[in-house]
Predict the 3D structure of the following.
Amino acid sequence: MNEEPPKGTSATYTPAPDIPQDLAPRLALILEVLSGAKTLSEAAREANLSRNHFQSLLNRSLHSMIETLNPKEPGRRPKPQALSELERRLKRLERENNRLKKRVEATDELIVVAGELLHGQRRPGQRTRRVRKGSEPDDVEPEPQAILRRVDHMRELGQTLAHAARLAGVDASTVRRWRLKCVRCVRAKRAVPASLATRAEHLVRELNGLIGAAALSHAVIGLTRRQAARIKCATLTLIERERQQALTRMSVAGAGLIRGLDAMHLSIEGSKCYALVCADAAIPYRTSITWGERYDAELVARTLERDIDSHGAPLILRADRARAHDSPHLRQILEKHQVLMLHGPPRYPCFYGQLERQNREHRAWLAALLDPLGHSMQALLEQMVYCLNTLWPRRSLGWKTAAEAWNTRSGIHIDRKAFKKEVKDRARRLERNIDLRAKPADLIERLAIEQTLTNLGYLHRQNGGWC
């Protein structure tokens, strides 16, 4: 029967056990043997067991009693070492499992983000086609902002900037530049009052862009330095566009009609010398080049005679206003071959811009050459002209070299006497209608030549230059 625990006992109290009926006789015999009332053999016979078997039961009972009666160490019973090791391994595996689960989730999300970036967009390294302002719908997010947003998302998922940018198909420096541009756009959204912006733009125009941003912010009260710098940059851009729109670009229809002559300063072993270059005005083909120690009329005449003998006489010779270009000997050569001289406006280098740009190529080629073979300067200049004419395909010529374009030119089928007479007649008509005070004496002749070439279809004018 169950025993009621006495009052005031602790939770460690153990009640008396219920003894099964079949085990009660054996328990009584064991107690009698322990108390000395019976011997081991008598108890074994009454239990109908062998003596060894009964003694084994008695010994096991004594072991249990001793183990129960043995005083325990204070505190909670320690766990077995094997169980503690298993629990540690279980916790470590759970942490590893959670980390891998988060990584898988981040990888899945990263694949989705990368798929959104790569699906239907450009390949890595491919340039983005520029979209005109106003042609993009309002509900479409600009591509740089979309890429930046997804790159930031990938950074939050643990990817480096280089890896995220590579998945987005752009370079890491491009991502930094776009982010900086977005920050500047946010700063630029701060509106500037129209009155302040108008006053600042007026000052920039009046001073031709010489005023600095700090001075502009002090000149216009209420304008910050950053706003002043932004207004100045926009005004200078507008001024440059207006200047280019006001220019007139001239293009020659055919090769061989107009030839330019210009000098280039050289330096050999500390002493100065000059190279005279003759080039066609329609294509970048150098017809001849000559050098001399002095830039005088003799060198110019010798260069022109050599050029005409090798490549024929042009219809027009374009030259600057150097004194060596206006000698009697040179005029005799031009009169002999019926070539008209075309002088540009004074102190206006844009008129001779083609030859000036070619001289930059000449200086760059000569600067890279150390002349290891000891050739003469004339040989080096002729080698330079050969390389620039025959080895350099140019986009403006349909990826042909200047020599190929020159060889396919058509001849000059113009009556030179009739052309010269028409120029003189037009010059007389212009002289009656133009005030020549404080203007060059050869202005009428230059305008007459340009108008005659335009009427014949050999000279084309295009509004809006880009130089």
